[in-house]
Write a structure and sequence with these properties.
This protein is α+β, with helices and mostly antiparallel strands and 229 residues long. The protein contains five helices and eight strands. Strands 1, 2, 3, 4, 5, 6, 7 and 8 form an eight-stranded mixed sheet that branches. The longest helix has 21 residues. It is globular and about 55 Å long. The relative contact order is 0.18.
Length: 229
């Protein structure tokens, strides 16, 4: 497998100022600024979401389903921005936000992901991927680290659906072979562990979601209690 050169992302606002979230590293593989070597993602100064940009929140949650077939059309910068912002908006233990997001747009790297991960064979024909990693230097409790990164992944999946795109969560942690493969492929430092991979893009066709609500899994005021509340 080939190692990629992953560079820190410089988030440029419309007024020309560069910004970086304190204590957080976002990386973008395959889209580097030719002068600085830093990946650049253009975002607007006002990040507020206008009405109509997203479907209604509960609809976006309940209609989300895993999408594995894509058109191959690349995502726009606005789409990348909104999906990443959704990840950053996730809750985390003690608000430590121990995540790092590696965005992947490079075709060869997407091919390498497909070779390394048996359930990510669709990556080369998707619009891109995001490897969500946890930083043990920020969150020392492994359980919290995984929970926090998983919350970020779920936020991204819901945002993807709300934008009319498709995505699938390909698990990495705790499978040692997958952790080792992603660590080598992306050149991750020792204190950073890959948690999960989100493959996303424009959907090829549609998939009808099904209702997953199961009242038999609801317990009220103890294990023996049942609905209604």
């Amino acid at each position: 497998m080939m190692k990629s050169n992953v560079c820190p992302i410089s988030i440029e606002t419309t007024n020309g100022n560069a910004a970086r979230a304190t204590g957080l590293l976002v990386a973008f593989a395959g889209t580097a600024n030719h002068r600085t070597g830093a990946a650049v993602l253009q975002i607007t100064q006002n990040s507020s979401i206008e009405k109509g940009d997203f479907m209604e929140a509960l609809e976006a949650i309940t209609t989300r389903c895993s999408i594995r077939k894509f058109t191959g059309e690349p995502l726009t910068e606005v789409q990348w921005d909104k999906v990443l912002r959704a990840g950053f908006a996730a809750p985390s233990a003690h608000n430590l936000r121990p995540w790092h997001f590696i965005g992947v747009t490079d075709n060869e790297l997407l091919e390498n992901i497909a070779d390394a991960h048996p359930h990510a064979k669709m990556a080369p024909v998707a619009g891109g991927a995001i490897l969500v990693c946890g930083d043990r230097n920020i969150q020392e409790e492994e359980g919290f680290l995984v929970e926090d990164c998983s919350a970020a992944i779920q936020n991204m999946l819901i945002a993807v659906n709300g934008l009319g795109l498709g995505a699938v969560w390909c698990g990495v942690y705790p499978v040692e072979d997958l952790i080792a493969a992603m660590t080598e492929l992306f050149g991750l430092p020792e204190h950073v562990v890959p948690i999960g991979l989100v493959v996303l893009g424009n959907k090829a066709g549609s998939r009808k979601p099904f209702d997953k609500y199961d009242p038999s899994r609801i317990h009220v005021n103890g294990w023996s209690g049942s609905i209604p509340l």
